[in-house]
Amino acid sequence: MNATVSKRHTWILLWICLILLNVIIRYPITPHEIGSDSFLMHFIADSISKFGYAKWWYHPLSVIGLYPYSTSSALPFYLSGVSQSISMDMERTIWIVLSCFGIFSSFTAYLMAGAIRDDEKFKFLTALVYSTSAGILTFTTWNASSRGLFVVMLPLFIYFLIRSRFSLKYGLLTGALFFLLMAIHNLFYLVVPIIVIFCSILIISHLIYKLKSREMDSTIRKNFKNGFTVSILSMIFIVLLTQSFIKYSFEEQISIILSYARYSGVLIVFAIGGFISLLFNSEKKFEEWFLLLVIISLIPFLPIEMYAKFFMLPFIALLISSGITNSIAIRKKRKTTLSIVIILLLLSVSFATFYQFGRTDISDQDIKSEFWAEESTVNAAIWTKLYANEGIFSDKLSLTRRIPAYSGVAMLSETEVIHSIQGNLDEYEFNNMSMRSPFSTSFYFEGPFYLSSSQSSKIWYWYKLRNENYNSKWGEIIIQRFNLNYYIGYEEEVSTIFSRSIIHQKDKLFDNGRISIWWLEGRF
């Protein structure tokens, strides 16, 4: 009894340490939020709080971001709800919410691992590896991206899906969570193969159970022992892997591999052993078959690293944990092996911590940064909020999201949904909507509807104006159409035709050393 109580206390202590680690490693060292999508989410969530509804909802597909001038809606609504509930500004709300997401990811990973294997070490290792991986840290540290919420919720979906095998309750929860994933991010497309594989294995196992043929069971068991099934699966794995990477050069292949290692952590080497042990295990359970076939089916998506490297994180974490626990189990000197594993875990956390803190130089918090909003940008945004009552233009991508996030001012932007919220759309946009063919991949991945004319998209105007003189024909047309009275740019960056055309001919209204604001109407 004392041994059981002591063991329980040990696990409680380990979980407390894991939670504290997740809090500490997400402590912000930048003065303001980071990322690119985060500022867009900041602006969109604030608009919900301000207007009381989603101004980009023109069609049911707008909810999941598959209609022009829309975006996935789950995260903005959640941020807005929390901000209003705790009466806190959006920037600090994002910090609190994302930190909670990071902690929550350890619990979703724990549940997912428990559905695969009822082993406390395996479950805890999965929670540790997953929640402290650089991929999860990237989107749960003051960086409000829909991808972050998606990868936090994905392990919970896998848990519900596996549990739905024996329970209608979990089946309903799986369906509800799938619809939630649809509203979070378009990565839900990659969930469809997982559901198909789960249903296929379920049907096959049900048929085998119904047949109740001892002869068949004997044959299957013999095939396992002879390596027939392993050979077939290995061949499929190799063929898919080769077909997926063959069109890339050697340097590009190395870059893709390093990208996965960077976001999964140094422990990814254990994933190889975990996959091999899973493949050659002759007594696979339903859950292990499910995991193996899902991993194989996702191989063709690996080169799409922008999204796949995050979607694959739960499965890589499971393979890493499996590889580590197998290494401990097969070694005779377990104390030595355990010490090595602890050192590797510390190395993994240190690797993730380096990308959290070491890569961002904040010695001068007023310098231009691609990762976080500088004080100069926030000050410029506050000035526009107080004094700029007309349209604003900036040819700098980072400013087109950061300025609206902190000021809420009307701004010509390279992001469609901002124009929906600012009410810049008219009948012309909607009259130029066309429908894609259901037989095209774009119909499913980009949405059934699209703008038939490039000039009907506000993004086109933003790119066009960057490459026009302010008093050219197109420059005057765009400035008048969007009622643009101000230009914002970095003081030392005069890199576009538009910026070069105004710096010596227009009046500067604001200058904080880094950001300048110019009046486009004329000279005083």
How would you describe what is shown here?
With 524 residues, the chain is mainly alpha-helical. It has 25 helices and seven strands. The chain has helices at residues 2-24, 37-51, 74-86, 90-116, 120-131, 134-138, 146-163, 168-184, 191-211, 214-226, 228-245, 250-264, 269-280, 286-297, 305-311, 313-330, 334-358, 375-387, 397-407, 416-422, 427-431, 441-445, 458-466, 473-481, 497-502; strands spanning 391-393, 411-412, 433-435, 449-451, 484-490, 507-511, 515-519. The strands form two sheets. It has a five-stranded mixed beta sheet with strand order 2-1-5-7-6. Strands 3-4 form a two-stranded antiparallel ribbon. Strand 1 (391-393), helix 19 and strand 2 (411-412) form a beta-alpha-beta unit. The radius of gyration is 26 Å and the shape is globular. The model has no long low-confidence stretch (mean pLDDT 84).
Strand order of the largest sheet: 2-1-5-7-6
Strand tally: 7
Shape: globular
Query: What summary fits the major beta sheet?
Result: 5 strands, mixed
Percentage of residues assigned to helices: 55-70%
Provide the structure class. Answer: mainly alpha
How many H/I helical runs?
25
Strand content range: 5-15%
pLDDT averaged residue by residue: 84
Radius of gyration: 26 Å
Low-confidence stretches: none
Distance between the termini: 85 Å
